[in-house]
Every structure is written in C-alpha cells, then in structure tokens.
Design a protein that fits this description.
- Helix 13 runs antiparallel to helix 14.
- The chain is α/β, with parallel strands linked by helices and 283 residues long.
- It is elongated and about 70 Å long.
- Helix 4 links the parallel strand 4 and strand 5.
- It has two domains: 157 residues, NAD(P)-binding Rossmann-like Domain (Rossmann fold, 3-Layer(aba) Sandwich), CATH 3.40.50; 107 residues, N-(1-d-carboxylethyl)-l-norvaline Dehydrogenase, domain 2 (Orthogonal Bundle).
- The structure holds NADP nicotinamide-adenine-dinucleotide phosphate (NAP).
- The site of NADP nicotinamide-adenine-dinucleotide phosphate has 26 residues, from helix 1, helix 4 and strand 6.
- NADP nicotinamide-adenine-dinucleotide phosphate binds next to helix 1, helix 4 and strand 6.
C-alpha cells in the first residue's frame, strides 16, 4: 500500500507520522498551501507534491484529511484524474463513504476511517494514535483494517447508515460531558461559592470518577443517591433544581437506574424509577 495525503493538517500530519513509524509506506502530501505539505513531508520524511495529479499517480490509497466541508470539493477534483484501482479514504466521524458518489464507475472504491480520539496538535498527535480505537466503513475495507491492526490498534467495521448515530455516541462521551461539568460548576456558583473555587473544586471528583469508569467500568463506578435508591435525596435534588438542570438531572438519572439495577440486582428501584419517570419540569 502507498498512502498519499491530501490535506496537511492535524490528522494528515499525525496519521502520516504514525504510518511511517510503523513502516507503512507513505507516498507524500498535497495540501492547498504548499508550505503545509512541505512541512508535513519533512516531519514524516516523505515527499511533498505541488500538483494533486502527481500525488494521485504516486499513491494507491488517498487519505482526504481535509475539513469535512471540503471533502466533496476535493473529491470532485480527484475524479478529474485516473483513479482506477485506487482507494479513497476520508476521516470524518459524521460523514460516510457515500460522499464518494459514483466512485465505482471510476473503477475505484471509497471508505471512511475514524479514530475515536481528539487530535489537537499536528506534531504530537501521532503519539495519541497508538491508544486510539478506529472504525472503518465502506467497500472492501479488510486491507485497511489490517493496516491499523498491524499498527496495534483495535478496529471494528461500521455500516454507512450508522455513521451519524456513531458520531453522536462520541459526542455523548466528550462534548456532552463538558456541558454537564460546566452546569455543575454553575450550580456551585449559584450556591454562593466563588468562580475560582467552583472551577477547581470539581476536578478531583471528576478525575476520580473518570479513572474509576476506565478502571472498573460504568456499573462498578456508579455511586450516589440513585445507586443507593435514596428516593428522599433525589426528591430534594429535583425540588432544588429548575429548567434544563432539572430535566438533565432527571433524564440522566433515569438511565442511572438501569445501571444501578445491574450493580444491585436485589435492590428495589421501582419507587425511584416512578418518581424520575413521572416528574416533569417540576410539575
Ligand atoms: N482533529 C481531530 O480531533 C479529528 C479527529 C477525528 C477525525 N477528524 C477528521 O479529520 C479530518 C481533518 O481534520 P483536521 O483536524 O486534521 O483538520 P485541520 O487541522 O484543519 O487540517 C485540514 C487541512 O486540510 C487542508 N485543506 C483544506 N482544504 C483543502 C483543499 N481544498 N485541498 C487541499 N487541502 C485542503 C488545510 O491545509 P493548508 O494548511 O494547506 O491550508 C488544512 O491544514 C476531518 O474530516 C475531521 O473531521 C479530526
């Protein structure tokens, strides 16, 4: 496999370096700004191309590591060249290989490969990739899955129809946690605590919980009033909250009851479940 990168940004740099470190052949880089492709070529000890056509000729697999909004535009440029037998890959979490419409008529195939991790720095991102789990979606993807497995990554195949829901799952584990953490800090401030105190006080609780989830799994990590079936405390919490905080507390707690039942099969959660399911916006 000879992998060429179109788009020398965070993911292009990181995947290219990751591949070369694992002896996977990288043909080089093309990017809209020549300086970016030159820098990526130096970083990965590969080549840079100032003509897209030349990179396409030098590669059998092309990674379109451009922003999601540019994938279709770059694809429309690529199909001006002969791509017979080649594989086109993009790395968007939300888009599927369907963006490569009409690719089979060109004698080529398309897929999407997504690392379930954040790549925030183009020079150090490759170090994070060794821990990343990857999903692959598209046509005849076994060879690409094998490339990542040979690098030591866990890889699973995903269907195109599930791509958006899959991306929403990642949002639950990252962005939505950010939102809930911030609501918690706001509530501390509403209790009269200082901004400075509120922004730091939750950190040990948050980190301890995150470590416990990773180490023990969600069921064993669960503690608190829902897990204890402490209906009086949950009732008081709901009475102290309003608006979206109350609704988020209620809805997430409904799910926590399901985890609590797994942790304590002998405990009776029926009254708590009824309270959470019937309570709506303080009515
Ligand atoms: N960053 C993450 O955490 C992450 C994680 C998983 C998946 N992804 C996915 O990976 C893909 C790339 O994201 P990224 O974070 O690497 O973005 P990025 O850092 O913004 O890099 C994108 C690069 O694409 C180049 N580019 C833009 N339009 C182009 C065009 N028309 N032709 C050629 N090159 C073009 C730009 O190059 P110049 O420098 O030359 O202008 C830019 O450096 C996206 O699909 C994203 O959803 C990102």
């Amino acid at each position: 496999m000879k992998i060429g990168f179109i788009g020398a940004g965070k993911v292009g740099f990181s995947l290219g370096k990751y591949f070369t470190e694992h002896k996977v052949c990288v043909s080089g880089y093309y990017s809209q700004n020549n300086n970016s492709s030159k820098e990526a070529a130096v970083f990965t000890k590969t080549k840079y191309y100032n003509k897209l056509e030349e990179l396409i000729k030098a590669s059998d697999t092309l990674f379109l590591t451009v922003p999601d909004g540019s994938i279709s535009k770059v694809y429309s440029e690529i199909i001006q060249s002969d791509i017979e037998g080649k594989c086109l890959v993009h790395c968007s979490g939300a888009l599927s290989s369907m963006v490569f419409s009409g690719i089979s008529e060109k004698g080529a195939r398309g897929c999407s490969i997504h690392p379930i991790c954040a790549v925030s720095d183009k020079l150090t991102g490759y170090l994070e990739l060794s821990k990343a789990y990857f999903t692959i979606e598209g046509e005849n993807v076994d060879d690409l899955a094998e490339v990542f497995r040979s690098c030591g990554n866990c890889v699973e195949i995903l269907s195109a129809e599930k791509k958006v829901q899959y991306h929403a799952a990642s949002v639950f584990a990252s962005n939505l946690v950010v939102g809930i953490y911030d609501l918690a800090a706001e509530l501390l401030q509403k209790c009269g605590l200082s901004v400075e105190f509120a922004s730091h006080a939750l950190q040990p609780l948050f980190m301890g919980n995150a470590e416990s989830i990773v180490r023990n799994g969600v069921v064993l990590a669960l503690t608190g009033p829902v897990e204890r079936a402490d209906i009086l405390t949950v009732e008081k919490h709901l009475a102290s909250l309003t608006g979206k905080e109350r609704e988020i507390y209620r809805l997430v707690s409904c799910h926590l009851v399901e985890l609590a039942k797994q942790k304590n099969p002998g405990r009776d959660y029926r009254d708590l479940q009824m309270l959470l399911e019937t309570e709506r916006n303080g009515e």
